[in-house]
Amino acid sequence: MKISFESSSDAQIQAMIVDDGVSLPEAAEVLDKASGGLLTEALCAERFTGKVGQQAIVVMPSAVETRRVVLVGGGKPADRKAATYERIGAELIKSQSMSGFKSLALTVSEAEHAASAAAGAKLAAYRFDTYFTKLKDEQKPSLTSFAVITADPGAAQEAFVPLDAETAGTSLARDLMNEPPNVLYPENFAARAKALEVEGLEVEILGEAQMEALGMGSLLGVGQGSIRESQMAIMKWSGGGREDPVCLVGKGVCFDTGGISLKPGASMEDMKGDMGGAAAVTGTMLALAKRKAKANVIGLIGLVENMPDGNAIRPGDILTSASGQTIEVQNTDAEGRLVLADVLWYAQEHFKPRAIVDLATLTGAIVISLGHEHAGLFSNSDELAGALSAASETSGEKVWRLPMGETYDGLLKSKFADMRNIGGRAAGSITAAQFLKRFVKDGQAWAHLDIAGVAWREGSKPASDPSWPSGFGPRLLSRWIAENYEG
User: Given CB 3.0 to 4.6 Å as the disulfide criterion, which of 22, 108, 316, 428 pairs with 114?
Assistant: First the structure.
């Protein structure tokens, strides 16, 4: 869908924001007069109060060039934030994309607010129709253009540039998670990361032989039951001069059966999304490249399949990680942390990062704790945790910090190795974070985001999240980098 910023528009559908208390906006008065007062009548007849989320839709007389008017509740002007305008843009697309009309325009006076509305529209317009072969025309969106009418179109376009980059990253993350696992396996995922070099990234791919030489027995152990070769993709964006980089690390389990500790069959198809952390990192790297971020950032993703083959790791096996620490595998379905352990170590050994943030659909326990509204945030740095929390407020991708501490370490004790890979039912998300912390060097600022509850959501979802996966991560991380590492 084409998005533009204009000083006027002859779109077939015209949308205007109405303040709480029902005052017809000035932009709507001409259309109200042309329609013989239909807009005013609609506000009264539909019990429209102007609250955020309300819409009154008016079909215009045939003599009027505008075919439809949508009056959109905007709430109280003093209470409107960027998220309000994003919601308005998204809900307009949700309600009108299948209307049969091709063009839609929304009037928003201020440039930054116009940009936010456009970002919401772009997020809501996302579709993944790749594998449908018999869609009828009425099953496809009719809208092809969304114009935002604003006082300064140039300023709005400039404000939209970083938001547009972030939504591109979100869309890529969604695409990756939506792909079926017979298409997006580790080598294919790595190839898609490599293809981002056209955007200005430098991408290196490590195969199993190279990772074995590096001693990455923890990651390789997870993938040894699959016929698909495990991979690690390293994506570099160098926009910050000689500054040490920030590292982003993503769990990329392209399909997770649970291995020998096999998952129940119900909803196992969702485990194609167990690479949500890797999708988030890849989407973030695209966003940074598209907006030419003035920072040095390295994205590292460990890509494996966890399958129950005769060569798969067994409960009771002991793996040696790249750090030299040994891990007793007590449950092969606690595999994501085994992948992250080696990638975290590689990042520190090779790049001396200013900060590391890892993302993973790591534990079902985080869904029990936080539902589908917040990602779990764990960190050894109050400063880093605070910066991520602040970015979550401005980006709309919410995080909530949970505790860590040595008192949880006893749950990871093993009789046969340096640690075991599970800590039992109690504090499952915390013990997973405590496990990862053992692969973070002293003095290294690090944060772990458990995104199992937000990578895909059940039940009611906002209009800006129209697909199975949310694409969580790129907007949060791009905003965090912009606010803390760019000038």
Answer: 108
For 73, the token pair is 């509740």
Residue in 300, 308, 305, 379 with CA at minimum distance from that of residue 341: 300
User: What radius of gyration do the chain's Cα atoms show?
Assistant: 24
Please name which of 472, 452, 444, 466 lies closest in space to residue 282, comparing C-alpha atoms: 472
Of 278, 276, 271, residue with least CA distance to 257? 271
**Residue count (the chain):** 487
pLDDT band for position 46 (cuts 50, 70, 90): low
Query: In the numeric block, which tokens belong to residue 294?
Result: 């003035």
Residue in this structure with the two tokens 């019990």, named with its chain if needed: 47
Which residue carries 């109050």 as its tokens? Answer: 382
Average pLDDT taken over every residue of the chain: 96
Q: Which residues are catalytic?
A: 263, 337
Is a pLDDT exceeding 80 seen at residue 295? yes
What confidence category does residue 212 fall into, taking pLDDT thresholds of 50, 70 and 90?
very high
pTM beyond cutoff 0.90: yes
Angle between helix 276-290 and helix 186-194 axes, rounded to 10 deg: 10
Q: Which residue has the tokens 């696992």?
A: 181
Distance, CA of 81 to CA of 94 (rounded, Å): 20
- In this prediction, what percent of the chain has a pLDDT beyond 70? 100
Tokens (6 digits) for 349 = 């050994």
The CA distance from 209 to 230, in Å, is 10
Terminal alpha carbon distance of the chain: 33
Quick one: tokens of 161? 């540039």
Measure the CA–CA gap between 365 and 244, rounded to whole angstroms: 35
Nearest to 250 by CA among 50, 450, 466: 450
Buried b (16+ CB within 10 A) or exposed e, 244-257: ebbbbbbbbbbbbb
Which segments within 24-170 are labelled E, that is strand? 55-59, 68-73, 103-107, 145-149
- Tell me the C-alpha distance between 361 and 469, whole Å: 12
| Tens-place pLDDT, residues 399-450 | 999 999 999 999 999 999 999 999 988 999 999 999 999 999 999 999 999 9
Instruction: Express the helix, strand and coil content of the chain in percent, nearest 5 each.
Output: 40, 20, 40
Strands 2-6 and 326-328: unpaired
pLDDT tens sequence across 169-181? 999 999 999 999 9
